């Protein structure tokens, strides 16, 4: 079955955020113009985004893509809109045969059950603050705070997330602001306060300074 990629959705605050950061921060003033029209984009629905994050845990980007492609072969319909009921209908042996570990199979099933039963309140997320959404997501097996924060940035496109557990962010801050000296979480948090209310955007550009190819979820 052909799987067609959909056009991404870009945050409406992006240009204003860039202007704000360029005025406020010497590193952002240098970084942001380097990446031209590149923008954060969200391409999939909530369930698909979280399923992909589980499949890709603790393996390389290349390996994660290969495993995801095998997983998609088991699922009917478009690649950017996987339904929880379709995952629940799969035999666990089929998921294992596609290369998923026992634990990842358990996580995917738990994720699907949370969505199918209404334990996650997708329609209310727009009115919920970031921490309330994180609390709801980390109740799902296999989703920790880092995954929840990536979801806030890449899917919900929340503007002011600072994922202090992300090694790329810490490494990028070290390189760009501290001449490659080690940086503590406290130092990164303090620096990030200067990026508010657009910490997600600044984080995205820090990631780009390490890897110019944007990641889409």
From TrEMBL:
UniProt keyword terms in alphabetical order: DNA damage, DNA repair
Source organism's superkingdom?
A: Bacteria
Q: Which Pfam families match?
A: HhH-GPD
List the top taxonomic levels of the source. Bacteria, Pseudomonadati, Pseudomonadota, Betaproteobacteria, Burkholderiales
Q: Which reaction does it catalyse?
A: Hydrolysis of alkylated DNA, releasing 3-methyladenine, 3-methylguanine, 7-methylguanine and 7-methyladenine
Q: Which PANTHER family match?
A: DNA-3-METHYLADENINE GLYCOSYLASE
Keyword set includes ATP-binding: no
| The HhH-GPD domain, residue ranges | 55-211
Q: Which organism is it from?
A: Roseateles amylovorans
Instruction: Quote the InterPro entries the UniProt record gives.
Output: Alkylbase_DNA_Glycosylase/TA, DNA_glycosylase, HhH-GPD_domain
Keyword DNA damage listed? The answer is: yes
Q: EC number(s)?
A: 3.2.2.21
Segments forming a coiled coil: none
The name this protein goes by in its record: DNA-3-methyladenine glycosylase II
């Amino acid at each position: 079955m052909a799987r067609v990629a959909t056009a991404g959705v870009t945050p409406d605050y992006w240009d204003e955020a860039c202007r704000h950061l360029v005025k406020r921060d010497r590193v952002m003033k240098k970084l942001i113009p380097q990446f031209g029209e590149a923008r954060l984009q969200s391409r999939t629905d909530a369930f698909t985004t979280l399923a992909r994050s589980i499949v890709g845990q603790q393996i390389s980007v290349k390996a994660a893509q290969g495993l995801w492609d095998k997983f998609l072969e088991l699922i009917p319909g478009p690649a950017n809109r996987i339904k929880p009921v379709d995952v629940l209908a799969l035999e666990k042996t089929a998921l294992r045969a596609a290369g998923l570990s026992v634990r990842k199979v358990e996580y995917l099933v738990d994720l699907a059950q949370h969505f199918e039963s209404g334990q996650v309140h997708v329609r209310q997320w727009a009115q919920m603050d970031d921490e309330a959404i994180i609390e709801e997501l980390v109740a799902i097996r296999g989703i920790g705070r880092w995954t929840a924060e990536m979801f806030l940035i890449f899917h919900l496109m929340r503007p002011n997330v600072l994922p202090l557990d992300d090694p790329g962010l810490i490494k990028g801050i070290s390189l760009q602001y501290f001449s490659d000296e080690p940086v503590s979480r406290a130092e990164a948090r303090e620096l990030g306060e200067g990026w508010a209310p657009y910490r997600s955007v600044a984080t995205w550009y820090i990631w780009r300074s390490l890897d110019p190819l944007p990641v889409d979820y």
